[in-house]
Design brief:
The chain is an alpha/beta fold. The protein has 15 helices and 9 strands. It folds into 2 domains: 200 residues, Alpha-Beta Barrel (TIM Barrel), CATH 3.20.20.70; 78 residues. The longest helix is centred in the middle third of the chain and has 18 residues. The protein binds flavin mononucleotide.
């Protein structure tokens, strides 16, 4: 599953991922125990903007290239607004509709959207009940992170300014004894109540509000939730390679975000690592031309997104894709100075003219995977 990522999970990136997915190089000889088709979550779509019919909505709603594998993610605060937006999406060609109950950005939490729903279990449950009655054709799902409890509840706070004293908040420092267990129990009860109202899939990114990516995701929470719920639970957080995606997919659905930008081939290559897949005798070295991949992304971006979005989306993509390069930070800075896709393309080509040794990324696939 491709994670919903604002300004990243758009059609341009999906096209790039799907090109690898269709490439026969990634078809294992032995198909036993295969991975399901990739699910593409869109970036979060504001229910209010969708209903208001903003000028860019048609781009956000573009379900290509595989509408049957697309999940629209909705974010919003008002149950009525979300209900109307979900009813509208239910009529479109897609796989599912996902409700964002995980976004911890202060601007989102403050209005009662995203993660704020987890602090209002009764309201969240009622919301799902209402959505269930209008989402008749598509799968209804929720994506969340560790829920808000106790002192974390209330309006979202802005992050402290540099140099300002830090408040002693439980989601910033180490958790207090017993707090983690309490939170896990709360999470389970919260998700069980959504299940009772008819949610069909839950994706958990097991980090608390305010926790940065440095702190490892709590995959044991995903395992526990899978045991406690009757519906599928997808795990998300820190998957970094095709081998890891294949391994994480063994216990159920797994979602990758940043790694899918760094390695748009991750879903295709994961198939070669999944249980039962066999690479040719002696293994296989897959090689990826990073320069070409970056240029292909720029082409797809120009084709699939409006000009107003080009430069911001290019920066977002290369922010992660440049991590494949030896001098990635340097080239990222150069690209960030670009004001048009042409500038970005020039800087990208320029890097490889000076560092041709960085062009190919080799991914070894062992002969036997299990
Ligand atoms: C730039 C960026 C934008 C994101 N936007 C969204 C979003 O729109 N909706 C959402 O549910 N999560 C969003 N997330 C969280 C990701 O979906 C995912 O949970 C997180 O990146 C952890 O997965 P990863 O370790 O595979 O990247 C975003 C993350 C990033 C890095």
């Amino acid at each position: 599953m491709l994670a919903p990522m604002a300004e990243i999970s758009h059609r341009g990136l999906r096209e790039l991922i799907a090109e690898y997915d269709r490439d026969p190089v990634f078809s294992p000889k032995n198909e036993a125990g295969g991975l399901p088709p990739v699910e593409y979550f869109t970036e979060m779509l504001s229910a209010a903007a969708l209903l208001g019919g903003g000028p860019f909505e048609k781009w956000y709603l573009d379900a290509g290239p595989c509408p049957g594998q697309l999940v629209y993610q909705l974010v919003g605060a008002g149950a009525e607004q979300l209900e109307r937006a979900a009813a509208f999406l239910d009529e479109l060609d897609c796989l599912g509709i996902d409700i964002n109950m995980g976004c911890a950005a202060p601007a989102i939490r403050r209005i009662g959207a995203g993660l704020a729903w987890t602090g209002e279990p009764a309201k969240a449950r009622a919301l799902i009940g209402r959505l269930r009655s209008v989402v008749k054709r598509r799968r209804l799902s929720v994506k969340l992170r560790c829920p808000l409890m106790g002192p974390e509840l209330g309006a979202g706070e802005d992050p402290p300014r540099r140099g300002s004293p830090r408040r002693n908040s439980p989601h910033r420092g180490s958790p207090q004894p017993g707090e983690e267990e309490q939170m896990l129990e709360y999470l389970i009860r919260f998700c069980q109540s959504l299940e009772a109202e008819g949610v069909q899939l839950i994706t958990l990114h097991p980090r608390r509000a305010g926790e940065k990516f440095k702190r490892p995701a709590r995959w044991d929470y995903v395992e526990r939730l899978r045991r406690e719920l009757g519906i599928p639970v997808a795990g998300n957080g820190d998957i970094g390679s095709p081998a890891e995606l294949a391994a994480r997919s063994r216990g159920g659905k797994a979602m990758a975000g940043r790694a899918a930008v760094r390695q748009p081939w991750i879903f295709a290559a994961a198939r070669l690592f999944r249980a039962g897949a066999r690479a040719p005798a002696g293994g296989l070295n897959l090689s990826f031309d990073l320069e070409k991949t970056g240029l292909r992304f720029l082409e797809l971006l120009a084709r699939c997104q409006p000009p107003e979005f080009h430069i911001s989306r290019a920066r977002r993509f290369f922010n992660y894709f440049c991590e494949n390069l030896k001098w990635g930070t340097h080239v990222k800075n150069l690209l960030n100075r670009g004001e048009s896709l042409k500038d970005v393309e020039r800087a990208w080509r320029g890097y490889f003219a000076f560092h041709p040794e960085d062009r190919l990324l080799i991914l070894p696939i062992p002969e036997k995977n299990s």
